[in-house]
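ok, trying the design again with the full structure, not the truncated one.
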């Protein structure tokens, strides 16, 4: 097992020139990305393997990370996706019977450059004040680069705004997970960074889940004869995903029921004719209070997004793209960010957060049941119309 307490130097450099010196953690080298913070006290393995974190250097606000190691049962995808990893105090030992390896070894295995031993609270407060920004972790030989050279490298890295990362995280070919229990039909899932727990939840509701590459055409999608379409979470700027928006508009024009989460919520917003914008520092964690306006309940939810939808918060409004009436169904109680959309005249809705949340909380898991019920109802109504004719 690799020691988490080697003394190799490392430095975190932010694009505004802020520097934090610490110890190398995980792989050695240089990594660049948008520096963001995640507030979850548990579930670091699910965070690391969430494809939505591609292109981002993730800082864990919980000070002690790694005590339960990494196992083969909890990954949300096929690898660790974070561009880099920042922790304060890595665990000295792995102390969980399910662990297969240490977190440090897993980071090394997937080539993820990290840093430990810095004041993560200070970095978090700085990002909350100044906003998310590009950064770089330098360890190994790159730790000895001159300060101005490290800063130049960081400032030449691409910004998250305008970035399309879907091709990096999507499957290359169709993958099918059979339905569990009574079968409803084929579900087309556009993989923009889908998590395994999402697939499991959809299969448990009776769908044969067809996970599709992000560049699939509407003709190819129709060939699987879907009863509904689902857009997953994923990284990147929704304004840079015009092809996915065009595909979704074709889906809505076909009258297929639709459900989207996270990135899928932003793309539904754009398909309906709404705008999106970048949040100052985003929502990332498992403690976000959201009001479900349908039920009146306040739910504690898991989030991972840096962009949001622009929409009127009160009442219904007409879709600028001609899809009828739309309303904001969910609102974040911390900052009034739009957390869900519901079309009133077509079978489509979405939420900005993660109802699957493998590491918890599970307050919003019922949304998968709401989707199943909508699909079943949509199947019954056309049949009743045929019977009348």
């Amino acid at each position: 097992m690799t020691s988490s307490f080697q003394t190799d130097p490392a430095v975190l450099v932010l694009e505004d020139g802020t520097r934090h010196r610490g110890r190398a953690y995980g792989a050695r080298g240089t990594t660049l990305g948008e520096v963001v913070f995640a507030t979850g006290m548990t579930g670091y393995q699910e965070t690391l393997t969430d494809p939505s974190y591609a292109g981002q250097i993730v800082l864990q606000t919980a000070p002690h990370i790694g005590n339960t190691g990494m196992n083969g049962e909890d990954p949300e995808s096929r690898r660790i996706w974070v561009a880099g990893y920042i922790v304060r105090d890595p665990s000295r030992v792995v102390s969980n019977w399910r662990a297969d390896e240490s977190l440090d070894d897993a980071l090394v295995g997937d080539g993820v450059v990290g840093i430990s031993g810095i004041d993560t609270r200070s970095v978090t407060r700085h990002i909350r004040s100044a906003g998310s920004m590009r950064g770089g972790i330098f360890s190994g030989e790159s730790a000895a680069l001159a300060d101005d050279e490290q800063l130049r490298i960081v400032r030449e890295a691409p910004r998250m705004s305008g970035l399309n990362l879907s091709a990096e995280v999507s499957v290359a070919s169709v993958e099918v997970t059979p339905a569990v229990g009574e079968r409803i039909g084929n579900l087309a899932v556009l993989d923009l960074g889908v998590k395994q727990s999402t697939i499991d939840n959809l299969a448990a509701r009776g769908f044969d889940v067809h996970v599709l590459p992000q560049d699939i055409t509407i003709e190819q999608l129709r060939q699987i004869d879907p009863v509904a379409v689902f857009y997953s979470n994923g990284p990147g700027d929704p304004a840079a995903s015009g092809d996915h928006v065009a595909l979704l508009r074709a889906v809505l024009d076909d009258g297929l029921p639709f459900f989207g989460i996270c990135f899928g919520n932003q793309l539904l917003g754009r398909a309906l004719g709404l705008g999106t914008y970048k949040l100052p520092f985003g929502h990332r964690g498992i403690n976000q209070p959201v009001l479900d306006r349908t039920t009146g309940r306040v739910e504690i939810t898991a989030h991972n997004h840096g962009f949001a939808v622009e929409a009127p918060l009160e009442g219904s409004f007409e879709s600028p793209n001609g899809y009828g009436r739309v309303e904001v169904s969910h609102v974040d109680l911390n900052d009034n960010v739009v957390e869900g959309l519901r079309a009133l005249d077509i079978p489509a809705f979405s939420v900005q957060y993660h109802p699957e949340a493998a590491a918890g909380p599970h307050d919003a898991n019922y949304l998968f049941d709401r989707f199943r019920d909508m699909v079943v109802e949509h199947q019954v109504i056309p049949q009743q119309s045929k019977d009348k004719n």
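Keeping the full-length input from now on. The chain has a mean pLDDT of 93.
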